[in-house]
Amino acid sequence: MAHCGSNQLVCELRQRFWIPKDKALSKKTVRNCVTCKKFNSAPFSYPDMGPLPKERVTQAPLFSHTGVDYMDPTVLLTSGEDEKRYVALYTRLVTRLVHLEVAADLSAKSFLLTFKRFIARRGVP
Predict the structure, then answer these.
(1) 82 and 113 inside one domain
(2) Does some domain include residue 90?
(3) Which of the two ends of the chain, N or C, has the fewest CB atoms closer than 10 A to its terminal CB?
């Protein structure tokens, strides 16, 4: 009788015992059983996806629609001294292609240097 359906549970119980309202009791028992809930649960279904933005579906040159973000600092050990370096993350919005550039700090000057290197390698977005 271990973790069976409610109908099988009723049949097994009726062979040995007489229980009033046994069908309702067996349904309630199976419904409240944690193991049966896990075993009989429906698989996860992903929600319906909304429409994609125009920039994601139209054909365009590489990195024409670009997002930029900074990652947490990475600590480098150079000549016995710890140095923090940041990573500028340039992402192409259409295909999620990633381009990484190292920045010395979080200043605007450092960002502009990474942006110039990005433009030199990938072209103007």
Answers:
(1) yes
(2) yes
(3) N
**Phi, psi dihedrals of residue 77, rounded to the nearest 5°:** -100, 105
CB atoms within 10 A of CB 87: 15
Tell me, yes or no, whether 29 lies in a domain. Answer: yes
Provide the phi-psi class of 80: left if phi over 0, else alpha when psi is between -120 and 50, else beta: left
Secondary structure of residue 83 in the 3-state scheme: strand
Phi and psi torsions of 90, nearest 5°: -100, 125
pLDDT in tens, 68-99: 999 999 898 877 788 899 999 999 888 888 99
Measured CA to CA, the distance from residue 101 to residue 112 in angstroms comes to 11
- What pTM was computed for the model? 0.54
